[in-house]
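Hey, why these numbers?
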Amino acid sequence: MTEVYGTTTINAPYSVALDSIVRRLRVKNHRIKLSVPLAKLGFGANLGIEREVDVSFVPLHGHKGERLLHDELQFVWEPSGGGPFPTFTGSLKMHPLGVDSEIVLSGEYKPPLGVVGEAFDVVIGKRIAEATAKMLLETLRQELEADFAAVKDTIEETPNKT
């Protein structure tokens, strides 16, 4: 199994992160598009890998972890339509970080295609997986910050009825 780990900080409270991610997955019918520009791996600037995956998930609110209180989304994603792509099992943990949030992605996959897949993973597959995780976290950061900004604007614009 190959492990993947990544983290990002989001300018939004952790208390809204899990529900926002779950809502987005449901709106997208449990399917997301993962992509990574191969330029980030030192290849041609116009090349990239893109794949839709089907996501099964379980949201868990308010777990007391080793460090502090966190929410968690446990998930498995599988490539839509099959193909020589790995199934990934992991979690997203959301931790409070002052007024911001830290989101930690961790998980693992087994390279497909046996020995050939394992060799591919050593040469470049793991780098692709790490770059994909980084792109996913960046997308999540942008989406969650946009969601929080919209909620915050709505609250600030709502007249106080006292």
